[in-house]
TrEMBL record:
UniProt name for this protein: SDR family oxidoreductase
Gene3D superfamilies membership: NAD(P)-binding Rossmann-like Domain (3.40.50.720)
Similarity field: Belongs to the short-chain dehydrogenases/reductases (SDR) family.
Keyword Oxidoreductase attributed: yes
InterPro entries: NAD(P)-bd_dom_sf (IPR036291), Sc_DH/Rdtase_CS (IPR020904), SDR_fam (IPR002347)
GO molecular function terms noted in the UniProt entry: oxidoreductase activity
Keyword vocabulary terms for this entry: Oxidoreductase
Pfam families: adh_short_C2
Organism of derivation: Rufibacter hautae
Length: 252
């Protein structure tokens, strides 16, 4: 899919946009004529995104856990692409391990990527949005923040932190015209999760049994919600956490 960049309506940054949910968000933004800057580490994934989406898709290879590089990264984006209208903090990592076996280093590694990097990138992008008096930030948390899911202690802590940070940022930045919201996906069929569930029919039945809609979500389902929250359609929406989970969070 190629687009004419002269038609770009806005500029967005999507972290982790080279795969899974992030890739679907990039596709949605490109369809909406939003110039989309994809940040990730894997060069091959970034090259595939460029090839798939054409000129409206710009990729930057950067490890966001390198916090010291973030101010220069945002400065480069501003210099080369002008105003940043939207930031989607989608990049995230997980660690499945028994609670008592998680080391301090592992816990901190998850928090570094899933929380501190989100804070640091948001802070630098917000500095560029403040003079404009406008901007939309969408964070990606997880249904893990609502449930006490086993064996994902660091991930759960990180996703709960994202939701708290979303509310605090929304309150503080509202007077400056910057909206901050969060999408909390349930079980989404990315390559990784679909394979894991398909290889474990018992777990798949359990998951589907507590999902009122009775099916996995797709990355595109999450992307539609992210686009809504980033758009004019959500101009009076801030500080919210929108579950995209087939009803999972109803808790039936
Ligand atoms: P993927 O593993 O496909 O995507 C994660 C992305 O994050 C990758 O593109 C990866 O890029 C990027 N990333 C990770 N660490 C870094 C880093 N240090 N610097 C830059 N980029 C990084 O997973 P999903 O698409 O499933 O997950 C996307 C988001 O959705 C995550 O925040 C996840 O927690 C959340 N989520 C997913 C659910 C699901 O069911 N799939 C459910 C609930 C929440 P690269 O490979 O280039 O390093």
């Amino acid at each position: 899919m190629t687009q004419d960049t002269t038609q770009a309506t806005k500029t967005a940054i999507v972290t982790g946009g080279g795969s899974g949910i992030g890739l679907a968000i990039v596709e949605k933004f490109i369809q909406e004529n939003i110039k989309t800057i994809v940040i990730g580490r894997d060069e091959q994934k970034l090259a595939s995104a460029r090839e798939a989406f054409g000129e409206l898709c710009v990729t930057i290879s950067h490890d966001l856990s390198d916090l010291s590089g973030i101010p220069a990264l945002v400065e480069q984006i501003s210099r080369e692409h002008g105003r940043i209208d939207i930031l989607v903090n989608n990049a995230g990592i997980n660690l499945k391990k028994n609670f008592e076996e998680v080391t301090d280093e592992e816990f901190q590694r998850i928090l570094l990527t899933n929380v501190t990097a989100v804070f640091a990138l948001s802070r630098e992008v917000v500095k560029t949005m403040l003079p404009l008096g406008a901007g939309a930030i969408v964070n990606i948390s997880s249904m893990a923040s609502q449930y006490g899911l086993p064996k994902v202690i660091a991930y759960t802590a990180s996703k709960s932190a994202i939701e708290g940070m979303t509310r605090a940022m929304a309150t503080e930045l509202s007077p400056n015209g910057i909206r901050v919201n969060c999408v909390a996906p349930g079980f989404i069929a990315t390559a990784m999760s679909a394979t894991a569930l398909n290889n474990d029919p018992e777990r798949k039945n359990k998951v589907m049994g507590r999902t009122p809609m009775g099916k996995l979500g797709t990355p595109a389902d999450v992307a539609d919600a992210v686009y809504f929250l980033s758009s004019e359609g959500a101009k009076y929406v801030t500080g919210t956490v929108l579950p995209v989970d087939g009803g999972n969070s109803i808790g039936f």
